[in-house]
Design brief:
Elements lengths: L1 H10 L4 E5 L5 H9 L3 E2 L8 E5 L7 H9 L2 E6 L3 H17 L5 E6 L7 H4 L1 H8 L2 E2 L8 H9 L6 H17 L2
Parallel strand pairs: 1-2, 1-3, 4-5, 5-6
Helix pairs in contact: 1-8, 2-7
The protein binds adenosine-5'-triphosphate (ATP) and magnesium ion (MG).
Magnesium ion binds next to loops.
């Protein structure tokens, strides 16, 4: 999602780089393959930077990222097991968020005609984060994009990502 959102920011006209702080290096590998967006180089000051953080909640790289960010996006599927994990993430985000920094939840892998997909606002309320008004659906095309990049996406997938990017851009200070 970090990669796809970075590309969406770029398509929306922002100059953006992606900083991959997840030691797994998925975003790095993805962007070396597709070259859709620049990978952030150390010491360079970018106008807009998307940081992919490590999944471990006690990771110093996560805490550093929270301390630096203007806006934090928690990405979760609406499934209860994922949301329980997200609950712990919310506590860490709250404890380390910079003053004035905005935090939101983005629901990903949403299946619109399911019970969970229909009640995203109340799921967000339960874990205590404001949801973005837009969400991202579960789509095969997003998996294809790891190999083929943005060009693998159909217009509906692109539109979802662009909506999310525009909503996030509007939150920036
Ligand atoms: N909307 C979607 N539709 C279909 N597949 C998706 C979607 N979003 C993510 N996936 C797939 O789910 C897997 C995990 O996605 P992603 O890397 O974004 O999650 P993550 O929470 O950052 O994982 P990790 O904790 O390993 O870093 C990937 O294989 C990805 O392709
Ligand atoms: Mg990840």
């Amino acid at each position: 999602m970090a990669v796809l959102l970075a590309v969406a920011f770029q398509k929306a006209g922002h100059r953006v780089a992606l900083l991959d702080r997840d030691p797994q290096g998925t975003a790095t590998r993805w962007l070396r393959e597709t070259r859709d967006v620049e990978l952030a180089q150390p010491g360079v000051d970018y106008r807009l930077q998307v940081i992919d953080t490590p999944p471990q909640l006690d990771s110093p790289l996560l805490l550093q990222s929270l301390a630096e960010a203007d806006c934090v996006l928690l990405v979760s599927s609406p499934s209860p097991a994922d949301l329980w994990t997200s609950q712990d993430s919310v506590a860490v985000i709250r404890a380390h968020l910079r003053p004035g920094c905005q935090a939101r939840i983005l629901f990903n892998q949403v299946q619109p005609r399911t019970v969970l997909g229909k009640d995203l606002a109340s799921l967000a309320h339960r874990i205590g984060l404001t949801p973005l008004t837009t969400h991202v659906s579960r789509r095969q095309a997003f998996q294809h994009s790891a190999l083929l990049g943005w060009r693998a996406l159909d217009s509906e997938s692109r539109e979802e990502l662009l909506h999310v990017a525009l909503e996030l851009a509007a939150l920036q200070p």
